[in-house]
Amino acid sequence: MARAVVARGAAVSALFVLAAGAAATRAADAGVKPAAAKAALTVTVTSPAPAAWPQVVAANGSIFAWQEASVGAESPGWRLAEVRAQVGDVVKRGQVLAVFATEVAEADLAQLRAALAEAQALLAEATANANRARDLQPSGVLSAQQTQQLLTAERTAAARLEAQRAALAAQQIRLKQAQVLAPDHGIISARSATVGAVVQPGQELFRLIRQGRLEWRAEVAAAELALIKPGQAVRINPVGAPASSGRVRMVAPTVDAATRNGLVFVDLGASSAKAGMFARGEFEVGSGQALTLPQTAVLQRDGFSYVFRVGADSKVQQLKVAVGRRVGDRIEITGGLEPAARVVAQGAGFLGDGDLVRVVEGPPAATAQTASAAPAATNAKAATPAGGAATPAGAKK
């Protein structure tokens, strides 16, 4: 019984095989081809294009005042009667910032003027006596000792007069110091002066940013420090303020032994940045050729950069590439891709390694132009085939 069941099953299988073979033969005779694999996406392709891009050195640092002036009191024990400057005020050289009370100083000045008048009178009397002694000296009426005493009294009176004049001049100078003057043009950055306070000599009352100038002190790696020269253009992006430009003023002669970074001092031009802000910047150290792709052609995955190269069989291969600078909508390819390769321009995120794509030829690629000196400028190399977005195969265009 079991043998009969097995025999019948084998016969049925043979019939199915014969039927499938006959169907295949009929399809071949009728000219029908097997169904082809379906493309995953319709894509445009692009190739790396050379471009003349500026070579830059990136750095970080803080913004400081170019120079700060400390404005303080010079005379001791005077009381502040008036404060005329506040933080943020723009002042000019010689402008009055604060005024001390001068009642006591003016009384001392009057006393010194009286002492000066007295010394002048004493000198006049001593001069008259000395002149008489000189006239009588040949007659012998006065002894030599008396004559010498009168002449010495004249010189002493003259010295006392000069001392009083010096004391009067010193008091006049102290009286001028009752006004605190700005030593230079600039901006008041700090104020500790308080009306009514009695200050001591040297005590700081104001701090002044000289000429309102700011500088960016960039920390540059020692290996790149030699590329930076005074006068080079710098693009600076302060955190919290619009981007601005500057010029290298000086490169520090030493490198920090702990960080191996050197300071580069950059004069800022017209900028809304404030002292103390953190800023990032780029030094333009030259220009060179770069192999570039549209940024849409480069896919970021797991911290690495990839492109999808389209082969002759319209299948894509995922390649890891090394990238460099970014200018506008272009990105530099520094390794991992040959210049003649054809890569997917857009929609690489929807593809997998080995996917079949349908390639739509776009307009020919334009020759890459020299990038603008400003890092924000866009390279003139168009994203040629990358102009159209990736669309599913079979979708209407």
General shape = rod-shaped
Counting helices, strands and paired strands, the structural category is alpha+beta
Q: Give the strand content.
A: 35-45%
Helix fraction by DSSP (H/I, runs of at least 4): 25-40%
Runs with pLDDT <50, length 5+? 1-7, 9-25, 27-35, 363-397
Rg (CA only): 46 Å
Helix count, per DSSP?
4
Q: What is the strand arrangement across the widest sheet?
A: 3-12-15-14-13-16
- In this structure, how is the largest beta sheet organized? 6 strands, antiparallel, barrel
Q: Can you give the mean pLDDT?
A: 80
Describe the structure.
- The protein has 397 residues and is an alpha+beta fold.
- The chain folds into 3 domains: 41-52 and 289-392, conserved putative lor/sdh protein from methanococcus maripaludis s2 fold (Beta Barrel), CATH 2.40.420; 58-66 and 213-287, Elongation Factor Tu (Ef-tu), domain 3 (Beta Barrel); 71-191, no CATH class.
- Helix content is 25%, strand content 36%.
- The strands form 5 sheets. A 6-stranded antiparallel β-barrel has the order 3-12-15-14-13-16. Strands 4-11-9-6 form a 4-stranded antiparallel beta sheet, with no helix packed on it.
- Strand 19 and strand 20 form a beta hairpin.
- Helix 2 runs antiparallel to helix 3 (144-176).
- The longest helix has 34 residues, at 103-136.
- The chain is rod-shaped, with a radius of gyration of 46 Å.
- Residues 1-7, 9-25, 27-35 and 363-397 have low confidence and may be disordered.
